[in-house]
UniProtKB/TrEMBL annotation:
GO terms for biological process: protoporphyrinogen IX biosynthetic process. GO terms for cellular component: cytoplasm. This is Porphobilinogen deaminase. The modification S-(dipyrrolylmethanemethyl)cysteine is found at residue 242. Residues 227-295 form the Porphobilinogen deaminase C-terminal domain. Its cofactor is dipyrromethane. Binds 1 dipyrromethane group covalently. The porphobilinogen subunits are added to the dipyrromethane group. It is an enzyme of class 2 (transferase). Its EC number is 2.5.1.61. InterPro entries: HemC, Porphobilin_deaminase_cofac_BS, Porphobilin_deaminase_N, Porphobilinogen_deaminase_C, Porphobilinogen_deaminase_C_sf. Signal peptide: none annotated. The gene is hemC. Monomer.
Length: 315
């Protein structure tokens, strides 16, 4: 491989390729003359589109095959939605950069342009996320949750095909695909706390690869990395995965960090939500403190029940 070329691995969905393009363009701007070759890779999460994510398996559904390509040298860097990245990275890999966060909130796309508060009783809501499901059922137990899989365009199409009242997607993906005009309402964090890392892109590289590390570190956004490090520390201390009904959202204001987290039962009846304040320069401590607070409130019992229920459903 030429010294002025890097190979970038990504999932092959339209959104993933769009996000990879954003990273490639940023690298070319930072390093004129650098050739970035994009290599789409099919992951486990892309192969089982007719099964709920919670039944396919817990960790690394959308990154395992990409990480394998990174470890064996087929690619030099990988671009992921940070919310898809397991709390513990594969041995030999590390975060090279976390880019500036796009809108972290969830978006409601309603068939009749209704806002969340105006959705009728027993409305059918489409989402692939247990995290969204439990928060919706907590405040609206009458909702009928319909599991959706597929890329963004497929899920939007199912709004009509399945006669749903609304679907819920990440605002960031819709914005990056130029579909922000489809958003009926951005759901505030006090209604639906975002997924851990939602809206942020992470560039994963091999440990010890100084050349690639030097190229990608110019794309790192300090505040986003601090906030998402706190969120991911919270996830790690709870032992959760990207499909567990756990959520956290960190916000940086100068040198201060505010972190809110949530754990809930699958039916939404038990929902624990707490917040801590900390220092932006110490995000790991904030994530651990928040996890310990929720564990003291019974989060471990909720998570044991959730894991048992998911295991039973997967049989």
């Amino acid at each position: 491989m030429r010294n002025d070329t890097v190979k970038l691995g990504t999932r092959g969905s339209p959104l993933a390729l769009c996000q990879a393009g954003l990273v490639a363009d940023s690298l070319r701007r930072q390093w004129p003359g650098l050739e970035v070759v994009t290599i789409p890779i099919k992951t486990s999460g892309d192969k089982f589109l007719d099964v709920a994510l919670s039944q396919v398996g817990g960790k690394g559904l959308f990154v395992k095959e990409i990480e394998e390509a990174l470890l064996d040298g087929r690619i030099d860097l990988a671009v992921h939605s940070l919310k898809d990245l397991p709390a513990e990275l594969a041995p030999g890999l590390c975060e090279g950069a976390v880019m500036r966060r796009e809108d972290p909130l969830d978006a409601l796309i309603a068939r009749n342009s209704l806002r969340f508060a105006d959705l009728p009783r027993h409305a059918k809501i489409g989402t692939s996320s247990l995290r969204r499901q439990v928060q919706f059922l907590h405040c609206r137990p009458d909702f009928q949750i319909v599991s959706l899989r597929g890329n963004v365009q497929t899920r939007l199409r199912k709004l009509e095909e399945l006669d749903l009242e609304a679907v819920v997607l990440a605002s960031a993906g819709l914005i990056r695909l130029g579909l922000q005009d489809r958003i009926t309402e951005r759901l505030p964090a006090d209604l639906c706390l975002p997924a851990i890392g939602q809206g942020a892109l992470v560039i994963e590289i091999r440990e010890g690869d100084k050349r690639t590390a030097g190229l990608v570190e110019t794309l790192n956004h300090r505040e986003t990395r601090q906030a998402t490090t706190a969120e991911r520390a919270f996830l790690r201390y709870l032992g959760g995965s990207c499909v567990t009904p756990i959520a956290a959202f960190g916000e940086i204001d100068g040198e201060a960090l505010a972190l809110t987290g949530m754990v809930a039962s699958l039916d939404g009846k038990r929902l624990l939500r707490e917040a801590v304040s900390g220092k932006a320069e110490a995000p790991e401590q904030a994530g651990q403190a928040l996890a310990e607070m929720l564990l003291a409130g019974g989060a471990d019992e909720i998570l044991r029940e959730v894991n048992a229920q998911l295991l039973e459903k997967g049989k």
